Amino acid sequence: MLQRILVPVNFTTASARALAVTRDYHPQATIRLLYVVSPSDIASATANPVINPTHAKEERAKAERAALQKLESWVRDGEEVAVEVGSAAEKISVHAELWGADLIAMGTRSRTGIQQFLHGSATEWLVRHAKQPILVVHDVELAEDQMAHLPPTS
């Protein structure tokens, strides 16, 4: 039986659906929602092209607080949240390993061609490299009973 399920989210419909499916199929598991802040998002948050170390630390803390606040709107009683900063695929893999996840459940959008080449896919990387099984939920319509498990999306 799966006891610890890591659900990386990026606040898209696809990740909301992965969370809904996880909640529906594994109601007794401990679920941890993980958001990975990209370093490039932190760097682009400032208008100053030269960032001193103190300012960078403040921007990182601000980005982490914002992510935690958004995660709180998605989490339910008994679920956990975490925020990491770095490469999404690598941080998800390391976090899953350190936390002792039995499964990583994540959503994916169907990118093809040039989009896939330019942006890559954390999901694709994890399917190839993660030590845990990966449940991939495509951005498709859910069954009516699964809709109740959806978090609010913006």
UniProtKB/TrEMBL annotation:
Q: One Pfam family name from the record?
A: Usp
Q: Where is the UspA domain?
A: 1-138
* Gene3D superfamilies recorded: HUPs
InterPro entries assigned to the protein according to its UniProt record, in alphabetical order:
Rossmann-like_a/b/a_fold (IPR014729), Universal_stress_UspA (IPR006015), UspA (IPR006016)
Q: What's this protein's family per the entry?
A: Belongs to the universal stress protein A family.
PANTHER family to which the protein is assigned, alphabetical: STRESS RESPONSE PROTEIN NHAX, UNIVERSAL STRESS PROTEIN UP12
Q: What is this protein called?
A: Nucleotide-binding universal stress UspA family protein
State the organism named in the record: Natronocella acetinitrilica
